[in-house]
Amino acid sequence: MKTGGQLIVETLEANGVDRLYCVPGESYLAVLDALHDSAIETIVCRQEGGAAMMADCHGRLTGKPGICFVTRGPGATNASAGIHIAAQDSIPLILFIGQVARGIREREAFQEVDYKAFYGSIAKWVVEIDDARRVPELVTRAFAVATSGRPGPVVIALPEDMLTETADAPAAQPYVPVATHPGEHEMQRLEELLEKAKRPFVILGGSGWSAEAVARFQRSAESWALPVGCSFRRQMLFDHLHPCYAGDVGIGPNPKLAACIKQADLVLLIGGRMGEMPSSDYTLLKSPYPDQTLVHVHPDPSELGRVYRPTLAINASPETFTEAFSGRGPKARPEWSELTEQLHGAYLDWSTPPETGPGAVHMGPIMSYLETVLPDDAIITNGAGNFATWVHRFHRFRRYNTQAAPTSGSMGYGVPAAVAAKQLFPEREVIVFAGDGDFLMNGQEFATANQYGLAIIVVLLNNGIYGTIRMHQEREYPGRVSGTTLVNPDFAALARAYGGHGETVEKTEDFAPAFERSRASGKPAIIEIKLDPEAITPTRTLTDIREGR
Asked: How many helices and strands (H and E) does the chain possess?
């Protein structure tokens, strides 16, 4: 006979969980007690949104469900930001939420929430475990749901009294991953379409990749001399210095890249959904009927034909598709080889940072410096804001599993993601890019980094505004500034107050020594860059936007 709390922990262990993220709460004390005797590492976070984002990053970088525990009511609602990211980004995650006792439900008891109603539209599955005997069954099922088809988040509510009751339950067995495989007929049809194509283009995206799958597809791209782009914030899926790489299919893409996709006669979309951001508001690929011949490869059949009608739909994971595609090649050198070379050259030009800009700090030389000193396996995390353009456009990703950023465009993701990434890969450098508004969404997780001795480095671009919104505001309502001005703390002093290392950069030449001191400190570090608000994009100032230039 074991308590529901003990059964929860045992089922997590049976499914290979070795770390979880939480903010403690009285509604699941029985689970916390069971964790006391477990080998599972419990990471105590400072806010539930940050905890859920850490779990998302864990799932993003491992392919296995990230595990998060939060308390009922406000804990659950705080965590919803991370669940929305995992849903839109197709990341496996399981969120456990404490719940009121079974006998007092439907009375709006203390912090009571109907989780099926609250999370029903963004989670893959929401369940409340009423009987401790069903814990092994339902928790193991959650692992299967979170990882099958299009991966995503599962929410499990745990009534407080269920966790303390004892039950005789079967021993938990691990879930069985289910992979979808392409058929030989579909692969032959793809070869036929490629042989007939004049201007093909490949877009990589989604989740469910591995280092092996990325390497396999890179070899296939070489065989076919295919031009390859990576979907928004999935840039780690192809080596940016490979001669087949054409660029980031994200927000504000290289105009030459966008034109090439629009003019392509065949688009091979692997793993991604090609949502609003990577499709440039559904203009690169028109919905529901693209101008191009579309071959869509996706692990979930419900995604095939949902937004775009494909000429050929292949229900397969990136892992199995790249395996099936590996070894196939053209009968002769493709006639588009020269186009592929031109696109890579255009990417190199596009991704070369500018040397100057408004103000005393210029981000272009800073990005050039980082490109020379960061190792290829450094992990870059970020949230949302115009500051992220400097990463997406000018950092050249070389290896798989080096990027953690929300395709959902959620602010506040970078710091908690960095905490999870550094715990997963303590031997690797982890760099956060953040804006001032972005950082203060979940910046308190810098305390978590300090608590666990995780030497992340936050490159914080402080321009005193909500930059993206101000940019849109100046374009739509020139000169009518409203609701976008920020008054910020001394971020370097804040880092030191947390126990970390702090630096302030007010001139371009100050950055390199500040970065090296941060590295040498061995502590979590914040490098605050005092950026001129005019430097809102790499190519246009706020004044340019306001005046319509």
From this structure: 21, 20
Q: Model confidence over 345-382: pLDDT tens digits? A: 999 999 999 999 999 999 999 999 999 999 999 999 99
| Two structure tokens written together for 469 | 């919104």
DSSP, residue by residue, 40-67: SEEEE-SSHHHHHHHHHHHHHHHSS-EE
- Residue 222 CA to residue 332 CA, distance in Å, equals 13
92-96, 158-162, 178-182, 345-349: least confident range: 178-182
Q: Beta 166-167 vs 2-3: how paired, if at all?
A: antiparallel
The predicted-structure confidence for 248-306, as pLDDT tens digits, reads as follows: 999 999 999 999 999 999 999 999 999 999 999 999 999 999 999 999 999 999 999 99
CA atoms within 13 A on the CB side of 548: 3
Structure tokens at 526: 């914040």
CB 128 within 8 A of CB 99: yes
Domains of the chain (ranges, CATH numbers) = 2-167 (3.40.50.970), 184-349 (3.40.50.1220), 352-546 (3.40.50.970)
pTM for the whole structure? 0.97
Yes or no: say if 75 and 49 are a contact pair by the CB < 8 Å rule. Answer: no
Cα-Cα-Cα-Cα dihedral sign, residues 356, 353, 347, 436 = negative
Q: Which residues pair with 125 in a beta bridge?
A: 154
366: enclosing H helix or E strand: helix 363-373
